[in-house]
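Anyone? Bumping this.
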Amino acid sequence: MTALLHIDNITKRFGGFVALDGIELEVQPGERLGLIGPNGSGKSTLVNCICGTLQNESGHVRFDGHAMDGLAAHQRTHRGLARSFQLPRPFHSMNLADNLRIPLIYTVHARTGPLRSHGALDDRCHELLEMVGLLAKAKQMPRDLTQVEMRKLELARAVAAEPKLLIADESMAGLSHSEIDDILALLVRLNERGITIILIEHIMSAVMSFSQRLAVLVSGKKIADGKPQDVVRNPEVVRAYLGQ
Amino acid sequence: MNTAKFSLVTLAVGAVVMVFAHWVHVDYLYFASYTILQFIVLATAWNILGGYCGYVNFGSAAFFAMGAYASVFMHKFHPLPVPFLILIGGVVSGIVGFGMGYLTLRLRGSFFAIATLALSVVLQTLVVNWDYVGGSRGAYIIRPEQIEFAGITINYIEYLFGLMLLLSVIALVTARTIERSQLGFGFASIRDDELAAEAAGVPTLRLKLIATTLSGAFMGMAGAPFPFYIGYLQPSSAFGLEYAVNSIAMPMIGGTTSWIGPLVGAVLLGSAQQYAIVTISSAVNLLIVGLMLVAFVIIAPNGLVGLVQGWRRSWRKP
C-alpha cells in the first residue's frame, strides 16, 4: 500500500534554532495517527510545514502521490490536506454558516467546478453544522460560541474542504472530560467516513483511545513511532515526558 | 435586489441628480459637487482594498495623481477625449496598483500602510523631476468652454460633472457586486484571518492583487479628469494630503463593510468640507476631517452603517 502522506527528511530552522531535524513520517490511507511530544517539540511546526504555512528548508512532503514542495497553503488544501488550528481562528465577521461557505466556495468548487446552486451550498453548510451539533446556531456569530463550540466550528470548517487527510492540532486543549469525548466521537465518525486523521494532542487518555499508531517528537526529532501501547513504554519517551 | 436592478436604480438616481443640477444651473454647484463625486469614487475604491480586505492604503493620493498625470501626458503627447483619458488613467493606476500589491502584500498591518505611503513619496519625487509633464512647475490644461455632444452644446464643467457622476455609479455598482460575490466572501475571509483563509483554500495573494489593481484603477479614473477640472496641475496638489486622508476618513466615517459606507461618508464629509471652504476658510477642511474621525472612532467605530445596524439589532430584540 502506498502512503497517503510521506514526509521525507524534513528540516526547519528559525535562525540558529533547529525546530525540526530530519523528520521522517508516513501515514497510510484511513489511518488514525496520534502525534505527541512535550511543548516546543516541533509538532505545530511540522503541521505548518506539511500544510504549507511554513516552507521547510530541506526534505520533501509527498501527499497522495504528488510532491507538495513549494506549493502554497491554499494549493495543498485544494489537493485534500486540511487542518484545524490550535487556537480557533474563525472568520469573526461572518455567521457560522458563512464560515463554512468559504472552504466550500474556494476549495470544493475549485476542485469540482462550481456545480452547486445557491440552495445546495446552503444545504451543505447546514449538513456540516448538524454534524458538529451547531445547526441551531447557524445564523449566530463566532463570538457567541463557547470554547468547545468554537473547536467544533474549527473542525467543521476543515472538514468542509472535503479533505483526504485532516490534521487536528490540539482540538481538545482546555476542554472538560465530556467535551473531549464529544470531539473524540466526532473525529472517529469522520475517520469512519474515510478521512485519514492526524491527531496532535497533550491529553494522553484521548490520544491512547483514538490512535492506531503513535509518533513522538522531542526537540524536533522523532524518537518513537509504533503501536500506542509500545510507544508509551519506550524508555526514551518516558524520559522525555517525566524527566530522568 | 440583483445587480442589474441595482445598476438601473443607481443610474436613474444619477440621471435625476444630473437633471436637477441642470435645472438649478449654478456653475459653483457643479464645481462643488464634482469634488464630492470624486471623493465618492476615491472612497469606494479605497474601501475595496481597505474595507473589504482590511489592508489600509495610505497612498491613495499617488494613484489619484497617476491618473491625473496620465491625462497631462496624453494631452501633450496625443490629445484624446476625456472618457478615453479616464480609461487610460484607470489602466496606468491599475498597473501601479498591481505592482505595489506584488511588492508589498507580504507585509501586513501598519507595515503595509507605511509601504504605500512610501510609494506615494517615490512617485511624487519622480513626477517632480519629470520635465515632460511640467515637473515642479506644474502643467496647464486649458479647458474648453463648451463641448459638442450628440448635437447638443454643453458647458464643459457640466460635462465633467456628468462623467464623474457616471464613474461614481460604476464604482458603486462594482463595489456592491463584489460585496455579494464569491470574491467578496474571499476578501472578507482575508480581512478576518488571512492564515485561516489560506488554510480554507482561499488563494489570498491572487485575491489581494485583484483588490489592489481594482482599487488603484478606480482611483486613477477619479484622477484622470482632474487636470481639466482644475486647469493647472502641480505635484503638490495632485499628491495632496487631503486625498490620502479623505479616502481613508470617508469610508471609516460611513462604515467599511458595505458599499453604502463610503458613499455616505463622502457625501457627508465632502459637503461639510465644501461648506467650510466657502464659509470659514479653505484651510479648515482637513481640521474637520480630523475632528470627525476622532468623534466617529469614539462614538461609532464601525461607522454610520455600523451604528444603524446596531440600532436595528437592538430594536429587534428588546
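Late reply, but here is one note on the structure posted above: Residues 156-180 of chain B form the longest helix (25 residues).
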